[in-house]
Amino acid sequence: AEAEETVLRTTGLTKRFGAFTAVDRVDLAVDRGEFRSVIGPNGAGKTTLFNLISGAMTPTEGTITLSGADVTDRSPAERVGANLARSFQLTTVFNGLSVRENLRLAAQARDFGGMSAARRLFADPDGFEGINGRTDTVLDDLGLRPVADAQASDLSYGDRRRLEVGLVLATDPEVVLLDEPTAGMSGDETDATIALFEDVLAEQTVVLVEHNVDLVMRVSDRITTLNAGQVVATGTPEEIAADDRVRDAYLGG
Ligand code: ADP
């Protein structure tokens, strides 16, 4: 077998707010197909790290590469347009549109990038075939076919969450970024979301930023623990659970 391919890499990634260092020389290497979670106590720098990777914030120092390309200076939209990453923060459910229309829009966002749909259609008349194909695949993968023509505003809570995941997958991303996707959910909803991740995101490269340690222990291949902006440890859930430095970070944090 070939060596694992690193899809997402951060090198010396640092974000300072004035004299305060929120993310401090973070090196991450996430392999293709890996489910990586980032945990840490409040204020550890998880959200800031997520914002740096998604492009919502510019690092003070360090670099970010996706599939070997340096994206440090690219905007969030350019990171998506370059087929590189996609996050919930960048997707919107349009309530007035059907499930299928929402998915088509997400699929187009990737294919058309900044170009208008009409211009792109002239440039690539076959483009819509790919969009239809990807829309159908996502409808089936997520069990949304029965509600394909329902208006998004009429969806049950569970179907709406599935549609949000579907919007991410419709862009056929290289890396899926998830920012506390179960925040505000009940236990049952959280369990359903975890099952969905295990099902639908199994093949994807995922970076999950999350404070729910139980969830992270269940779904992750590897976990990176942050404290005070720095990486404390990276390892499998078993390794992290047994790591004294991780325990100290939480109890001392
Ligand atoms: P976490 O998500 O792990 O709770 P954050 O990344 O939100 O941590 O925050 C890390 C630290 O950076 C916190 O001390 C927070 O107050 C600080 N911080 C985050 N964003 C800003 C900002 N825009 N300006 C100043 N300080 C910030």
Layout: helices, strands, pairs:
Blueprint: E1 6-17, E2 20-31, E3 35-39, H1 46-54, E4 61-66, E5 69-70, H2 76-81, E6 85-87, H3 99-112, H4 117-123, H5 127-141, H6 157-170, E7 175-179, H7 187-200, E8 205-209, H8 213-219, E9 222-227, E10 230-235, H9 237-241, H10 244-252
Parallel strand pairs: 3-8, 3-9, 6-7, 7-8
Antiparallel strand pairs: 1-2, 1-4, 4-5, 9-10
Helix pairs in contact: 3-5, 3-6, 5-6
The structure holds adenosine-5'-diphosphate.
Adenosine-5'-diphosphate binds at residues 17, 20, 22, 40, 42-48.
Keyword list:
single chain, 253 residues, alpha/beta, Rossmann fold, 2 domains, six-stranded mixed beta sheet, four-stranded antiparallel beta sheet, 10 helices, 10 strands, 40% helix, 25% strand, binds adenosine-5'-diphosphate, P-loop_NTPase, ABC transporter ATP-binding protein
Unique ligands: adenosine-5'-diphosphate
Helix and strand content put the structural class at: alpha/beta
The portion of residues forming beta strands comes to 15-25%
Annotation field: number of helices:
10
Number of strands: 10
* Radius of gyration (Å): 19 Å
- Helical amount among residues, as a percent range? 25-40%
What's the domain count? 2
Broad shape: globular
Low-confidence stretches: none
CA-CA gap between termini: 41 Å
- Report mean pLDDT, rounded to a whole number: 84
Strand order of the largest sheet: 6-7-8-3-9-10
Text of the CATH class of the largest domain: Alpha Beta
Q: What oligomeric assembly is this protein in? A: single chain
Order of helices and strands: EEEHEEHEHHHHEHEHEEHH
